[in-house]
């Protein structure tokens, strides 16, 4: 055989061999094996990240609930200022009535001690 013909046959053989190796290297089962290896290596880390995120979400939900509860309590305190003013007025009235009763009791019976005063 002549040299150019031999080179052509050699090139065909190497091309076929290269194509066969390429097909084998990229066969679906090899790709699935590589995918499985990747998942096996990265899954524990992903599972840990998921657990961390769930724990942070629970903590965040607890903090949000606490803040919402505190805001509600402050709003209720602000809304109840009307009632505090009403109670203050009633206490002043009660003190005034007690003072009048003490004064009236002293003027009717000078021998008896006055009612106790807590002012």
UniProtKB/TrEMBL annotation:
Belongs to the BORCS8 family. One of its GO terms (biological process) is heart development. InterPro entries: BORCS8. The gene is BORCS8. It is found in: Lysosome membrane. This is BLOC-1 related complex subunit 8. GO terms for cellular component: BORC complex; lysosomal membrane. Its main location: membrane. PANTHER family: BLOC-1-RELATED COMPLEX SUBUNIT 8, MEF2B PROTEIN. It comes from Panthera tigris altaica.
């Amino acid at each position: 055989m002549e040299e150019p013909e031999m080179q052509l046959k050699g090139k065909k053989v190497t091309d076929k061999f290269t194509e066969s190796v390429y097909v084998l290297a990229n066969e679906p089962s090899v790709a699935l094996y590589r995918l499985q290896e990747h998942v096996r290596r990265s899954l524990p880390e992903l599972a840990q990240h998921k657990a961390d995120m769930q724990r942070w979400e629970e903590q965040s939900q607890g903090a949000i609930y606490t803040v919402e509860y505190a805001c509600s309590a402050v709003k209720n305190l602000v809304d109840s200022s009307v009632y505090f003013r009403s109670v203050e007025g009633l206490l002043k009235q009660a003190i005034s009535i007690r003072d009048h009763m003490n004064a009236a009791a002293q003027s009717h019976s000078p021998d008896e001690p006055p009612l106790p005063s807590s002012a």
